[in-house]
Design goal:
It is built from four helices and 15 strands. It has 237 residues and is of the alpha+beta class. The relative contact order is 0.08.
């Protein structure tokens, strides 16, 4: 009798957990989580919720601060309710894969040149995607990032200067971005460092202060890129 009771109780518990998991309002929970994360980060997010279920929630036409990201899918499992660990993937102008927990983020991404060029306003022209990978700590609002692209042209007093095989190592704390290394490894060698002060309410008002050296037609020159995103000034001497 006791054995049958235990079996019946276990079966009921399993069925209850299964139906609870299947019927749980995942869409509302994920939307609440995204809204809270956006508020904490000081950014504006808009999207269309397409589909939500026990293992994933998909958003379409996601925009972050007016920048179109594309379609995004958040994947999770039953234990995500306890661990708060989820996986994120997106397709569109930003293609990314990310593993997110309360204390750690690991990600890789490909960012379309269209996004970068829209902010550069002709001061810089990216002709290939920007590849990004990194880790971060959401609680400390910090991150370490590596980025690379095949070619970028930068406006200068002598015209647009092409730089190829660009690589950067960046550290982030809050809205301050420190460029620890920015180099190119082709005909026009580049070696820069600097700081970006991000204005999260108006990206075009963010401030750039980068300096170092560049090989221009075989001669090493001092190079500076300063100003706001909307009005970058490049000097070479």
């Amino acid at each position: 009798m006791k054995k049958k009771l235990l079996i019946s109780t276990a079966a009921f518990a399993i069925l209850f957990i299964f139906f609870f998991w299947m019927m749980f309002p995942y869409g509302n929970i994920v939307k609440m989580g995204i809204s809270r994360a956006a508020k904490d980060a000081g950014i504006n997010i808009s999207y269309d919720l397409v589909d939500s279920g026990p293992f994933s929630t998909k958003f379409s036409d996601l925009e972050v601060n007016g920048v179109t990201v594309g379609d995004l899918t958040a994947s999770y499992s039953p234990i995500s309710l306890l661990t708060r660990n989820i996986s994120i993937s997106s397709k569109g102008l930003i293609t990314c894969e990310a593993e997110i927990s309360p204390s750690n983020v690991e990600f890789t991404a490909q960012i379309s040149p269209e996004i970068i060029n829209s902010y550069a306003k002709g001061k810089a022209l990216l002709s290939s995607p920007l590849a990004v990978e990194g880790t971060g700590n959401p609680q400390g609002n910090t991150a370490l990032i590596k980025a690379s692209t095949d070619k970028i042209e930068v406006e200068s007093p002598i015209g647009m200067l092409p730089f190829e095989k660009m690589n950067a190592e960046i550290s982030i704390k809050g809205y301050d971005i420190t460029i620890n290394k920015l180099t190119s490894n082709y005909d026009m060698n580049l070696d820069l460092k600097g700081v970006l002060k991000i204005n999260n309410k108006n990206m075009e008002s963010s401030v750039v202060n980068i300096n170092g050296t560049a090989d221009v037609f075989g001669q090493k020159k001092n190079m500076k890129i300063i100003g706001r995103f909307s009005n970058l000034q490049t000097s070479i001497n």
